[in-house]
Amino acid sequence: MFVFAVHLVELSGRASAMLIVHDTCSNIRKTSKITAKNQKHSSPSDQIVAAFEKLETESEESSLFVEALTVVSSYTSMHEDICNLADDKSADLIIIPFHKQSNIDGEMDNGNSSFRGVNKNLLENASCSVAIFVDRGLTDSSNIKNDDGHGCCRCAMLFIGGPDDREALAYAWRMASNPSPNPNISLTVVHFIVGKDASVDLSPNNPNNDHDHHEDEDKNILEVVEENEKEKHLDDQYIESFVFNTRNQPSIRLINEVVNNGEETLKLISAMGNDYDLYIVGRGQIGSSPLTFGLSEWGDCPELGPLGDTLASSNIVARASILIVHQGGALVDELVDQHLSE
Ligand SMILES: *[C@@H]1O[C@H](CO)[C@@H](O)[C@H](O)[C@H]1NC(C)=O
Ligand SMILES: *[C@@H]1O[C@H](CO)[C@@H](O)[C@H](O)[C@H]1NC(C)=O
Ligand SMILES: *[C@@H]1O[C@H](CO)[C@@H](O)[C@H](O)[C@H]1NC(C)=O
Domain range spanning residue 323? Predict the structure, then answer.
């Protein structure tokens, strides 16, 4: 696994945009002239670089490679630099921090609108997948010990359906089992199944069926039904291959839950309470599933999708961190095919 750790620094004054590469492969870091000149500004960056170096040295066996970079640019063009870098390095996933920070009680502050702008632009324009990380102190969860006395992280992946959820599951799966099963990470996938009392309005005029604002306007009911069927088929295939391939891993399990509406979905998640340190969800679209109907009223960041927004804006899972994944390109569906042909 290659990690490109990118420190984003706002471009100020008349300086021109630049990219600084920190050499993490050798113990003696070659500091470029640019960082040396701004020594007092570069120290937070240095600490982060040092943390990544430590990670790299500690995980020699699992062959993790880290390259630390600093990008200096204006907030309005930061996403372009990140996208170019991601394309250049053929990155599969860009992980960015949420623009709001949490306090000790898990309450979020008002956030930073410049950071939010960068995130929105990235979600809109990156050609690879993008995940937003709502950090509520995941690093502290290393204090929790599992049976072997190892630090552990208890992850829950909430699977409702659709491309973003499949991408989120792919990432969760990879986290818990690659390159080999990791006893320090437990993964519970909660598969939400649409109950028979769920109201499904397939009319193309229903804004809830507006999966893609630009293309769906001319769709008729048949096309909507067909598309929903196709998505459901891909979901089922992927879940099936996940269950089959992880059947011998005790730290991974799948739970099926039948729910009929957004309210029941939330009730179920609240009941999970503080059982997990990290929730992984797909971003999804508002109204793409009856199981998230009405959830958008909860939050104020629609870019996180109905479920992600609800979890990040409420205290339903106040002490858990959240990773919201949005699929870019068609990577996961290639992965589905790959798993199925194996
Ligand atoms: C956002 O963060 C940057 C960098 O810390 C800061 O310069 C800016 O004033 C912040 N903006 C808001 C609205 O808080
Ligand atoms: C995203 O990319 C398109 C096409 O390159 C461009 O027209 C648009 O302005 C970009 N959006 C942002 C927010 O950069
Ligand atoms: C699990 O965590 C412990 C310490 O917290 C660490 O020593 C060990 O290498 C970890 N195991 C794996 C497979 O990462």
Answer: 132-341
Smallest CA separation from ligand 2 atom 2, residue? 125
Q: Which residue has the tokens 């630049």?
A: 18
For residue 322, give the nearest of 67, 143, 134 by alpha carbon.
134
Return the residue whose CA atom lies nearest to atom 4 of ligand 2. Answer: 125
Q: How many domains does the structure of the chain reveal?
A: 1
Instruction: Work out whether the CA dihedral 205, 211, 212, 218 comes out positive or negative.
Output: negative
Does residue 70 form part of some domain? no
Q: Whose CA is nearest to atom 1 of ligand 2?
A: 125
Which CATH number is 300's domain given?
3.40.50.620
Distance from Cα 200 to the centre of ligand 3, integer Å: 46
Q: Whose CA is nearest to atom 7 of ligand 2?
A: 125
* Nearest atom, ligand 2, residue 120 CA: 13
Task: Looking at the CA of residue 180, tell me the nearest atom of ligand 3.
Answer: 13
**Which DSSP category does 71 fall into?**
E
Helices and strands (H, E) in the chain, number of each type: 9, 10
Interatomic CA distance for residues 245 and 240, integer angstroms:
9
Query: DSSP alpha helices (H): ranges in 59-112?
Result: 78-88
Residues 259-310: tens digit of each pLDDT: 998 889 999 999 987 789 899 999 987 767 888 887 767 688 999 999 999 9
The verdict on residue 327 lying in a domain is yes
pTM: 0.83
Give yes or no for residue 208 CB within 6 A of ligand 2.
no
